[in-house]
Amino acid sequence: MTESKSFVRLAGAGMVLAVLAAFGLTAAFYTHAFSHPLEVTLVTSRTGLVMDTGNVVKMRGIEVGRVGSIKAMPDGSAVLTLDLDRSQVAMIPANVVAQIEAPTIFGAKFVALSLPATPSAARISAGAVIDNAGVTTEVNTVFKSLEGVLNSVNVADLNVTLTSLADAVRGRGTTIADIATQADAYLTKLEPDLPQLRRDLLQVAAFGQLGLRISPDLLQILENATVTGKTVVTQQQALDRLLVGLSLLGGEGVKVLGVNSTALAEVLRELRPTTSTLAAYSSELPCFLEGLDKTRDIMADVIGGKANALIGKVSIRGALPPYTYPQDLPSYPQGRGPTCAGLPMLSKSQIPYPERGTPQ
């Protein structure tokens, strides 16, 4: 009898231990006690409400890890250690970004990993720091903002405003519906023109930027015009005398031109061939003058310096060929274009030397 009682006690104790072991094993599996996760860090400005260790880390809706620890920093930010499942690391790029989200308004938050625009070929590694894309807006944040709005609003005035608005729309539902229908029709017609409107607005913006760039010059022009206006006002009497003088000069000019109009026209007509020739060969004049200037520098020692005087020795020689007509007439350019013929600096082969006769 004693042995059977001992057996029952041992069996009961074994069952209790087995149940406790089962519960412990279940808890260990639930908390991933036997896993060897890959630890990475997420730094965020805040974690929000209902963010605890053990919360899920997801990517594309698939659980890839859990929140290992949460640490508050002195500057108000939070550092989360994420324990990623090593079997899922192969699908997580090194430049993955994270956002703290909530499935419902009051639900526990989780960390959602998302791929960037250009995912990296390298995979995430232990000790990596993940960029934070933000934290979803929470109910307490909304209530806090709403509380600030309500505190700044006069309740009596708000009541009067809402009452007036209710009286204004009461019984006018059909009219408001018609207005909404017409507005929808107008917007539907306007929609095809939105690209052109956008281009026009861009042109207006470019015009505004151009106006902004040239505004200093415009202001300077206006300032100069103000000074000019003040000068005209100050010198008004002198300007009046000038205008009177110009009027008299114009009257006399009309008389002179009226009497000599035929003669002036004839003179201008006769000068046209000459001026046309001078205009055609006008480019020779600068090099000719430059040649004279260089010649003056070269002959300075011979003619007595660069003073306004000419000192020279002249000798008369005979036995030169006599002047013959028309061979010795000066030649004029005919048909050739303007040329400087080596000027302003002639070479030795271009310098003409006169024939020498017998000294007399």
How would you concisely characterize the structure shown here?
The protein is α/β, with parallel strands linked by helices and 360 residues long. The chain is built from seven helices and nine strands; from the N terminus they run αβββββββααααααββ.
Mean of pLDDT? 79
The shape is elongated
Number of DSSP helical runs: 7
Helix-strand string: HEEEEEEEHHHHHHEE
Number of separate strands: 9
Largest sheet: 7 strands, mixed, barrel
Distance, first to last CA? 180 Å
Q: Uncertain runs with pLDDT below 50, 5 residues or more?
A: none
What is the alpha-carbon Rg in Å?
Answer: 53 Å
Alpha-beta classification = alpha/beta
Approximately what portion of the residues adopt beta-strand conformation? 5-15%
Strand order of the largest sheet: 1-4-3-2-6-5-7
Helix percent band: 40-55%
Provide key terms for this protein:
single chain; 360 residues; seven-stranded mixed barrel; two-stranded antiparallel ribbon; 9 strands; 49% helix
Secondary structure elements and pairings:
Layout: H1 2-30, E1 38-44, E2 56-59, E3 62-72, E4 78-84, E5 97-101, E6 110-114, E7 129-135, H2 139-152, H3 155-169, H4 173-190, H5 194-234, H6 236-280, H7 284-298, E8 317-318, E9 358-359
Parallel strand pairs: 1-7, 2-6, 5-7
Antiparallel strand pairs: 1-4, 2-3, 3-4, 5-6, 8-9
Describe what you observe in this structure:
This protein is α/β, with parallel strands linked by helices and 360 residues long. Among the domains are: 1-34; 36-140, no CATH class; 251-306, no CATH class. It has helices at 2-30, 139-152, 155-169, 173-190, 194-234, 236-280, 284-298, and strands at residues 38-44, 56-59, 62-72, 78-84, 97-101, 110-114, 129-135, 317-318, 358-359. The strands form two sheets. It has a seven-stranded mixed barrel. It has a two-stranded antiparallel sheet with strand order 8-9. The protein is elongated, with a radius of gyration of 53 Å. The mean pLDDT is 79.
